User: Fold Nocturnin from Adineta steineri.
Amino acid sequence: MSTDVSLKEITQHISPVSLKREFSEHHVTTPQTLHVLQWNVLAQGLSNPEGNFVRVKKETVSFDNRKWRILEQILIRQPDLFALEEADIYECFLKEHLLKHGYTCFFTPKPKSPCFVFENDSDNFKGPDGVLLCYKTQLFDEIHRYYYQQSDDDTRGKPFFAILELKHKPSSKNIIFIGTHLKSKKSFADLRITQTDAILQYLTKNYSTQKHVIIAGDFNGESDEPFYDSICKTGFSSAYRTLLNDTEPPFTTWKFRAHDEVEFEQCGCIDYIFYKPEGFVPISILKLPTKEEIGVNGLPSNEYPSDHLAIETIFNINP
Assistant:
């Protein structure tokens, strides 16, 4: 079944047409290219607009509307590898469809998912959210999978990263792919550096000589936070920053919330795809829309299902 036919089966459920996005540079897929997607899809269990997304109507974030848009945005550009956060609709929806479209998946649910707070919301509760890593089955052989397991005396918070070690068959290179979702809110910057250090320590212990490594995730912090500097000092670069003249995008998340009935705006770049330059060269990125293109009510919207924008990078794989 062709990609166009597959997408038509999905888009027939979607109206209005989704927000249009394009890559920054034309690229040709070769055995030495790798297409990576990173996206916090917004858990259905956390999507209730009341006090949360104050400019959003309930029907905009209904499960029947969002599930098809989320699937469309995953599949429309056919990534080779992707990391999703807050993927509470994996078991009830994405699992079946991603398998049908040729992906092998590794889902790590959070034992203490915030979605459980809304367990009585029958319209939106779909189970725990978590990190979902997926790869095109025909392109990779899986070598190993791992997720962080919290010990009883661990103070670093709930499980927050998962790893796939894969052999990329076209290039014969082993690739380490990490997906993560760090603690939210500005006040937890110190915890985010501790969480990041745990990821880097695991890589140092297990993959110290591996140069084909990618870390993708919702880091819940901007590039002026210590976690960002820690990652870069360990030999990683940000794909978007590399191709945007040494700057990160203006934002990857944009929404309007309320506190004590007073509306406030949240906007910033907190999602990243980090890579080791000795293993990869980014050649194209998925361009991000402007606020004007999104609309005055921010995200999620009638044309886009999450409060985070997906980011995608095409890499050349170094020998």
